[in-house]
Amino acid sequence: MCGIVGVTGKDNAVQILLKGLKRLEYRGYDSAGIYVNDQDGHEYLVKEKGRIADLEAEIGSDVHGSTGIGHTRWATHGVPSKANAHPHVSADGRYYLVHNGMIGNFAELKKQYLSDVTFKSDTDTEVIVQLIAKFAQTGMATKAAFKKVLNLIDDSSSYSFLLIDNQEPNTLYVAKNKSPLLIGVGDGFNVVCSDALAMLDQTHDFIELIDGETVIVKPDSILIEDTDGKRIERKPFHVSTDASAADKGAYPYYMLKEIDEQPGVMRTLIKHYISEDGSIKIDDNILQSLHQSDRIYIVAAGTSYHAGLVGKELLEKVAKIPTEVHVASEFGYNPPLLAAKPFFIFLTQSGETADSRQVLAQVNELGYQSLTITNVENSTLSREATYTLLLYAGPEIAVASTKAYTGQIALEAILAKALGELRQVATAADFDVAKELTKVANGEQELVDEKKDIKKIAAALLPTTRNAFYIGRSIDYDIVQEAALKLKEVSYIQTEGFASGELKHGTISLIEKGTPVLAVITDKHTAKHTRSNAQEVMARGANVVFIASRSLAKDGDQIVLPDVHPLLTPLVAIVPCQLMAYYASLQRGYDVDKPRNLAKSVTVE
Ligand code: F6R
């Protein structure tokens, strides 16, 4: 979603802001803008609808400065347009503001305080900058006016703000609530960003902010205050990620790079979590907390939710502990009747998903223990949960999640093994997770090496179709839900991932001559059933492609998967499905890394 960058104390502020915004492009946006000043009375505001490249083209050679703020906007209030792009400026030309999140009571604030102000945009953000200016015009200092406005914003809102008062041109006023924001610490300069990746070229040391804090950032100082105005001292944390890990290298698209990285992710997880002797290296407190619970609740959204479906299989079969999987946005407002001793696992690539955060806030209020499994160290869900396990998958930049999905499942397998051993479950003793994940890594490698075959199948099966189906049963039903999400989100082909036995109960009426149906068969108990369901749709004209494990494959099956442990088949079966989505998107001429309307990190509910 929206991205924020800011810098103070560096001569080349324009270049730093643009580079930072480019690094945030992956999060999804529809317009962008920057404001810079040079401490000598020259200031520049440039905004543009479209890509950062469009913004860059608008920036004249005279635009320069040492302090500035920048923003990528993903429209919530008001259409994507130059006028609605950030930064927004107050009517008196004094204050410039960028904002991530949304202000629940912006209409009320506008009506109550700003009926005499002419607005240039339809955004909730402009209300905030106009209101700060309004209070400043009554003689209030900027900090006081800023804090007064923060206090007027209602609880339903979320924000991270970066404000410049052109009367103090080297000062950044910063505040956050529910939306991520970090201060990057430099030598003689400082930066601000909504994602550390944006500023890794400038620094690897970042200070996290807590909701409700305000911060005043100057080139040589960072002053953090809590809600009561009390000064807070906080040490920076170090981000070891190499800035180049977020580059595409020789790949045409991040999605392809990240699909290819999956065997490496498996090996990294083995290295991090499993010792040479096979013992699992997971904090005993996590395992004991899980062991003492009587039911696990996995809460997640989108692809992470699909990884949770496989997690349930693993935890129930390997560790013999009842597990439920819930869509975060549903759980938050309609929770199920909880068990006596629940334990919560939050699966989240970004660690920032607002729907999941909302559930975690409730879990914390109820005093239950929780674990966040995430790819982003120090992310909000990681900080707010009792425990964290990291995926170590490297930055995932393409909007469509690939390596985080397989990383999450692999880590769930390791966790299930450790928990099963603690609970003395026989299945766990027989589950050699390091050996099985190594087999998976080799199998995934085999599949990514054969991507040309998938490209041909995608070209023949999905050239112009409007809709498609993935079908499967049992664990294959888990797989096809993720396979369908991948295909629809990047190719815009309306795709359903269906339990193949359910087709005949209604949905089969959608099958007509040429409808593409991809049948996934990795579960030996349901292989025959899925094949007969596939026959049913073939008899009605469907164009069926079979994706089957080698030991279950039949002559003529188009995609054959290496055999792996029956609970880990999603880790290999998803690879050709990800590639299918990738090629289907490219052959339709879409930007596969940045599908329309989507954002990488969904920080609004
Ligand atoms: C789809 C995708 C999304 C995310 C979802 C949750 O490819 O990436 O469905 O999985 O928005 O995001 P995280 O995992 O960051 O909580």
Structure notes:
By secondary structure, the chain is of the alpha/beta class. 36% of the residues lie in helices and 22% in strands. Helix 8 (284-292) packs across helix 13 (403-422). The longest helix is centred in the C-terminal third of the chain and has 20 residues, at 403-422. The mean pLDDT is 95. Fructose -6-phosphate (F6R) binds next to helix 9 and helix 17.
Main beta sheet, described?
8 strands, antiparallel
The secondary-structure class comes to alpha/beta
Number of distinct helices? 19
Strand content: 15-25%
Bound molecules: fructose -6-phosphate
Low-pLDDT stretches are none
User: How are the strands ordered across the major sheet?
Assistant: 3-2-4-1-10-9-11-15
The best one-word shape is globular
In which range does the helix fraction lie?
25-40%
Whole-number mean pLDDT: 95
For the secondary structure, the number of strands is 25
Radius of gyration: 25 Å
Question: Termini, distance in Å?
Answer: 12 Å
Summarize the structure.
By secondary structure, this protein is an alpha/beta fold. Helices cover 36% and strands 22% of the residues.
Features:
binds fructose -6-phosphate; eight-stranded antiparallel β-sheet; single chain; 605 residues; seven-stranded antiparallel β-sheet; alpha/beta; 22% strand; globular
List the helices and strands and how they pair.
Elements: E1 3-8, H1 13-24, E2 31-37, E3 43-49, H2 52-58, E4 67-73, E5 88-89, E6 95-102, H3 106-113, H4 124-137, H5 142-152, E7 158-165, E8 172-177, E9 182-185, E10 190-193, E11 205-208, E12 214-218, E13 221-225, E14 231-232, E15 237-238, H6 254-260, H7 262-273, H8 284-292, E16 295-300, H9 302-318, E17 323-327, H10 328-331, E18 342-348, H11 354-366, E19 370-374, H12 380-384, E20 387-390, H13 403-422, H14 426-430, H15 433-449, H16 451-461, E21 467-472, H17 475-491, E22 494-499, E23 516-521, H18 527-538, E24 543-549, E25 559-561, H19 569-587
Helix pairs in contact: 3-4, 4-5, 7-13, 7-15, 8-13, 9-13, 9-17, 15-19, 16-19, 17-19
Bound molecules: fructose -6-phosphate.
